[in-house]
Design brief:
mainly alpha, disordered N terminus
Amino acid sequence: MKSESIAFAIAGVAFGFLAGWIVGDRYATLNQPPQVAASAPAQAPAAAPPAVDLERIEALEALATDEPTSAGPRIELGNLYFDAERYADAIKWYTAALELSPDDVNVRTDLGVAYYYTNQPDRALSQFEQSLQVDPTHTKTILNVGIVKAFGQQDLAGAEEAWEKVIALDPDSPEGGAARRALDSLRSAHPRPSDVKPGA
């Protein structure tokens, strides 16, 4: 797993059809957000998440016990569970890692994403806020803020503000590209008065 990696996709052309986000520093298959319109076109079933390597889990749990002050094995356990879409288990291990390394922005952001995937958008945003206190320009976190505000809270203005900030900070990054596509979809589905031309 590359720590700097981010993978995500936007499916559909209208904001109501946005789906398939994969955010943060983890590779995972995101289930379609619950707020996606029921009339969205049928999509191919998502690939099954990878099975958890039980031998690796056992070894890492033993290592975590042997190294009570090391965040490393706890982060790896969180990552393994996250990739397997076992988000409750990922939350447990990310939380344990953050008790030892509270300023790890990537882990805290991944914890927030795991909270979002377990339908806890307020807790997700709380983790993102803490990440941004450490690194106010962390574009992966800010991109996630927009996603959770849009899909978890239906706060379109808040999502727009977050995505505009990502573009302003790093327009040529993968996050900047994703934010631009999200904004385009949002504005095409929900045009602002200034976007509507007379006679349209």
